[in-house]
Amino acid sequence: MDRIKQVLKYYYNIEVTNIQSQQGGWASLAYKVSNEKHSYFLKVYEKSRASTPKLTERIDAYVPIINWLYRNSDLKESISVLLLTTEGNYKCEDDEGVYLLYDFIEGTTIGDRVLTEKQIQQLSEIIAHLHLYGEEISVKTESIKEDFSVPFLEFFKEILNSNNEHMAIDIREIVSCYKTQINRLVRIVEKLAESLQLSDLRMALCHTDLHYWNLMESQDKLIIIDWEGLKLAPVEADLMFLMDKPYFNTFLKIYQDTHENFELNHEALHFYQGRRKLEDIGEFLEQLIFDSLSEQERMNTIDYLDEELRSISL
Ligand SMILES: Nc1ncnc2c1ncn2[C@@H]1O[C@H](COP(=O)(O)OP(=O)(O)O)[C@@H](O)[C@H]1O
Ligand SMILES: [Mg+2]
């Protein structure tokens, strides 16, 4: 906790008196830090985790675009915005972690709950609005442009083609059990990627991680948080999170008020669904192989992995 106080003082010139651990996301720790004047939300990516470099390397590329949206679009009240260090940097770090600081949003995370009609309306309007913006905006979007690359390719090749003696026996068994299915999914996603690379689908700003743990409600307003996946991409990168929802038709109607004649591209949709599965499987395996997890974390991760692997076998 002293470390957090030091980081806030040194990099943000903020003295905090209260630090409360929060339920963070999948990849980072989270704290509510406050003094008598203000509350902040501090996100900490531990350097000991295998996923941290990949998750923090994009910060400098995407934050200027979020800031642009904050200043130039109607999304100001619907997005969470990062606070800068006294030197004007988006993140800071010490030996143990990479730190990001936000204003604390007083509200609730949608998480396991369902959206109300009003929230469905708000979500549809926010996403429709976000997708209005593309590469023509006045900040550079090149570095967040979709390249249709397939994640964990080398990693999968390596673990699928070796006897994995360094792995714990239960993980090795899971991998060998699902070898064929993982290989098949990799091939399908690679093929879709090749085809999409040659297509000229319109690309727009997309959040790309639109699950309900990234939606918060505050004073009757829906706020989308966790913009670390921001990309210039075919809009199916976002719509894939909504298409299985019971309200998808309502969503689409509202969406089409802004994007007339919009039609889903099924190739892009399948690509994003498949790639997301590979990403999740790769990340779970990476955690199980490289991170030091507690027994409970390990069990949870194996359950998630099992669920994903079973879903690609259908
Ligand atoms: N600015 C904020 N104020 C209050 N709570 C927040 C804020 N940002 C995130 N949270 C809470 O912390 C959780 C994890 O944050 P998130 O940014 O999604 O991290 P991760 O990248 O690890 O998923 C969210 O589900 C939400 O409940
Ligand atoms: Mg999140």
How is the biggest beta sheet arranged?
A: 6 strands, antiparallel
How do the SSEs run, as a string of H and E? HEEEHHEEEEHHHHEEEEHHHH
Q: Between the first and last Cα atoms, what is the distance in angstroms? A: 46 Å
Q: How large, in whole angstroms, is the Cα Rg? A: 20 Å
Number of helices: 11
- Number of structurally distinct domains: 2
Q: Quick one: CATH superfamily of the largest domain?
A: Aminoglycoside phosphotransferase (APH), C-terminal lobe
Q: How many DSSP-defined strands? A: 11
User: What is the CATH architecture annotation of the largest domain?
Assistant: Alpha-Beta Complex
Outline: globular
Low-pLDDT residue intervals, each spanning 5 or more residues: none
The level-1 CATH class of the largest domain:
Alpha Beta
Beta-strand percentage? 5-15%
The unique ligands bound to this protein are: adenosine-5'-diphosphate, magnesium ion
Class based on secondary structure composition and strand pairing: alpha+beta
Named CATH topology of the largest domain: Aminoglycoside 3'-phosphotransferase, Chain: A, domain 2
